[in-house]
Each structure stands twice: as C-alpha cells, then as structure tokens.
C-alpha cells in the first residue's frame, strides 16, 4: 500500500521566502514614503494657496496686505505704542479670510490688544487650539509652541504653532542673523532703522504694503514661506528652528522676537545652524514651499543662489536670486530658480 507523504517547507526554502519578502519590502518602502511625502507636500501647498487667496481677499477689502504685526496699546487703539507686550500677527488678521471668523471674533483680533487678550484664561485656551491651515503635515512641531512664547503681564504663554512666516526682509541686521521690525522712518528700540536697515519685504510692524508698492511684480516677490520646528543634524543633535506662532508675536526687543511670525534672508533655506530660526526651512527634502504675492505657490530649492548680506554692508543688498525674491522694489531682474 502506497503511503501519501505530505511535504512541507524545508528550512532553506523558508529562509529564501523570508529573504524575498525582505527585498520586496526594501524596494517598496521608499516608494511608499515618497508617496506619503508627496501627499503631505500637496497639503502644505494647499495651505499656502489658501493664504495666498486670503491675502488677495484682504487686499480687496482694505486696499493693502495685513500688517506683519500690530503694535497697539492695551486698548487696541494706539498704533504708535512703543511698550512691551504681544502683538496680533498677520495670521490672526487673516483668520476671517480662511473661514475662521468665529475664532477671530472670539479673540477680538484688532479690537483689543493681544497683550490684553492674554489676560483672559478662556481666550488663552482658544489660542492654544491648533488651526490646521497653519500646520505643514511634514513637520514635527508640538502644539502649543514651547519654543516661541507670547509675553503677557504675568510671564510668558505658549500658544498654537504655525509653520508659516511672512517675508520681512531680504537682508540681515548688521552682522547678526536678526530681522528688521521697523519700517522706513519709524523709531526703534535699537540703532535704526534708517533707509539702510528698512525691511524690503511685505511684512513688519504696522506695515501697509499694497500691490502698488510691489514694483518688482507680484509674481517675483515672496509673501509667505515655511519654517520647520527642527532640522536634522548629521552630527546627531537637531538644529533648533522653533517654527512660528499662528496668531502673533512678542514685540519687546523686536529684531529678535518678531521671528515668531516673520522671516527673512538672514540665512539660507534649511540653514544648518540654530540661526535657522530667523529664516525659512522645512522637512520637505531639498527645499521649502512659498506663496508669492500673486498667489502662486512655488517649491524653492535650498540650493538657490543666495548670498546673505548684512544691512551694514556696502553695495547692493540684493546680489543673489533669493534676496531679489525677498525684495518688493529693488528693480533687479530675477533669473530661473
């Protein structure tokens, strides 16, 4: 009588199958990761596109883009107030134009100062709630933002994180990686600004830039770009960029604190140093996303021609492509990038 013998896998065959599966996973995993990053980058692009539309709707309503941040007294009325505290940023002023009317009304954006609003515990709770339009899905920032905090009468307060910052200026403050908060002819808490130090971008303290002021062309001028929470450091510890704040900034020692909502050409895109907190950066491989003043969204590579220039330097500030994109009226042609 013939016995039926059921044959199973040998150990060698099992190991071969496992090895094949491992190879397939190794081949497929990068493709899956790339697909996920492509989806995240598309969402980030959509966020910036939404801000671009909001900027144009704001301009249609008020004839200008929103100020980079509103320096107000505690009652929200005196725009020449020069005390310390916190100021509503461009993001808070755009809330009604990104379908966040209820949040803007509850916070009293513009009708009271941010310093005053921070004294209300209920409003502080609202300020800590994340608004998805301000968050790049590729980034790892916590919420609320513990790296940048708003100043109130009894200390500092962390509020909702943002990954998007407004274009303040093409250059850096003298030899440091700092920004220029004051506009042409305005008084300041440090040695400027004067013409040499005035911001060349779109946003600063109580700025009132309109389309007519962007003589280089709205398609040649950056409005808003990304900033990440951290950047990878090949040496191990991560570089601290601290992302941004969705609704506002502290306005004491402004050339330091306005990085809460603004950025500039002080450093290169994805600058591998902790001074990345003054510039633009992202967790997208190879560059960062930006919306231009015409509402178009562009991915700008970190390898773009960029030679950061200090405001105390002689000659033209804008001697590189990225600096020209950060300037609204330098009159210089921009090549491909």
From TrEMBL:
NCBIfam families: IV_pilin_GFxxxE, pre_pil_HX9DG. This is Prepilin-type cleavage/methylation domain-containing protein. Pfam families: N_methyl, SBP_bac_10. SUPFAM superfamilies: Pili subunits. It comes from the Bacteria. Residues 33-306 form the DUF1559 domain. InterPro entries: DUF1559, N_methyl_site, Pilin-like, Pre_pil_HX9DG_C.
